[in-house]
Amino acid sequence: MTKKIIGVAACPAGIAHTYLVAEAIENAAKKLGFECKVETQGSIGIEDRLTAEEIENADLIVFSVGVAVRDNERFEGYEEKSIKVPLHQTIESIDQIMADYFNK
Amino acid sequence: MIRKDMIFVDVSATNRDQVISKLSETAKALDLVDSKEDFIQAVMQREEEFPTSIGFKVAIPHGKTKTVKEPFIGFCRTEQPFIWEQEGNKEVSLIFLIGVPQHLEGTLHLVILSQISRMLMNEDFRRKLSESKQKEDIYALLLDIENHIKEKNEN
């Protein structure tokens, strides 16, 4: 089965990094042949909001955030399949981090 | 939002302050900011919290502050790569300076900025920014993103 990756991207200004890391996660997932959807919580507001079903069905949840996650309670109970990756690390090496996660 | 007079190629700057100052000075001359000094201060405060060099020779300094009258994005390509700041030790030659008012009506400008940010993760886009000979080419590249979003917004 194709792995399902979901992510949450957010940064303090919500102008640039939110979208850089969202793109980085999506690109990495594509490269590895995974399905992917990333919710962006930026100054535009929440886009591509993750549904309860998507959260439930995800194989991995990547949090790449520099601020508190909005509506965080949606992700409670899924800590085991969640990883937190700092913004800069996401941009540099999320492909490697994802690959390692499934190869451990 | 994309303006040719905010795009500079092959600038001889060799440090972060020179680039931010040059673009901010132009923003002031174009009446995009009230005060060059206040804008630079906001940008540098953001840099101190966390430097905005992101790798791939790209940096995206930005300031969200009331001194910005109109959202803008400026671009500067330096002749030679330089170290953005000592701690991160990352080489930079492609710099986007972003200014956003504290309270912004509407989201169109933010959508354009978000799309340019996404494009920066695209190797082909970065190569075009590096290899374009003239500023007109870079202007066309960025304007294309803006027009695409405006069209989408109208539909």
TrEMBL record, chain A:
<keyword id="KW-0597">Phosphoprotein</keyword>
<dbReference type="Pfam" id="PF02302">
    <property type="entry name" value="PTS_IIB"/>
</dbReference>
<dbReference type="InterPro" id="IPR036095">
    <property type="entry name" value="PTS_EIIB-like_sf"/>
</dbReference>
<dbReference type="GO" id="GO:0022877">
    <property type="term" value="F:protein-N(PI)-phosphohistidine-fructose phosphotransferase system transporter activity"/>
</dbReference>
<keyword id="KW-0418">Kinase</keyword>
<protein>
    <submittedName>
        <fullName>PTS system IIB component, Fru family</fullName>
    </submittedName>
</protein>
<dbReference type="GO" id="GO:0016301">
    <property type="term" value="F:kinase activity"/>
</dbReference>
<dbReference type="GO" id="GO:0090563">
    <property type="term" value="F:protein-phosphocysteine-sugar phosphotransferase activity"/>
</dbReference>
<dbReference type="InterPro" id="IPR003501">
    <property type="entry name" value="PTS_EIIB_2/3"/>
</dbReference>
<keyword id="KW-0598">Phosphotransferase system</keyword>
<dbReference type="InterPro" id="IPR003353">
    <property type="entry name" value="PTS_IIB_fruc"/>
</dbReference>
<dbReference type="GO" id="GO:0009401">
    <property type="term" value="P:phosphoenolpyruvate-dependent sugar phosphotransferase system"/>
</dbReference>
<feature type="domain" description="PTS EIIB type-2">
    <location>
        <begin position="3"/>
        <end position="99"/>
    </location>
</feature>
<dbReference type="InterPro" id="IPR050864">
    <property type="entry name" value="Bacterial_PTS_Sugar_Transport"/>
</dbReference>
<keyword id="KW-0813">Transport</keyword>
<dbReference type="GO" id="GO:0005886">
    <property type="term" value="C:plasma membrane"/>
</dbReference>
<dbReference type="InterPro" id="IPR013011">
    <property type="entry name" value="PTS_EIIB_2"/>
</dbReference>
<keyword id="KW-0808">Transferase</keyword>
<keyword id="KW-0762">Sugar transport</keyword>
From TrEMBL, chain B:
<keyword id="KW-0808">Transferase</keyword>
<dbReference type="GO" id="GO:0008982">
    <property type="term" value="F:protein-N(PI)-phosphohistidine-sugar phosphotransferase activity"/>
</dbReference>
<keyword id="KW-0762">Sugar transport</keyword>
<dbReference type="GO" id="GO:0016020">
    <property type="term" value="C:membrane"/>
</dbReference>
<dbReference type="InterPro" id="IPR004715">
    <property type="entry name" value="PTS_IIA_fruc"/>
</dbReference>
<dbReference type="GO" id="GO:0009401">
    <property type="term" value="P:phosphoenolpyruvate-dependent sugar phosphotransferase system"/>
</dbReference>
<keyword id="KW-0813">Transport</keyword>
<dbReference type="Pfam" id="PF00359">
    <property type="entry name" value="PTS_EIIA_2"/>
</dbReference>
<keyword id="KW-0597">Phosphoprotein</keyword>
<dbReference type="InterPro" id="IPR051541">
    <property type="entry name" value="PTS_SugarTrans_NitroReg"/>
</dbReference>
<protein>
    <submittedName>
        <fullName>PTS system IIA component, Fru family</fullName>
    </submittedName>
</protein>
<dbReference type="InterPro" id="IPR002178">
    <property type="entry name" value="PTS_EIIA_type-2_dom"/>
</dbReference>
<feature type="domain" description="PTS EIIA type-2">
    <location>
        <begin position="1"/>
        <end position="145"/>
    </location>
</feature>
<keyword id="KW-0598">Phosphotransferase system</keyword>
<dbReference type="InterPro" id="IPR016152">
    <property type="entry name" value="PTrfase/Anion_transptr"/>
</dbReference>
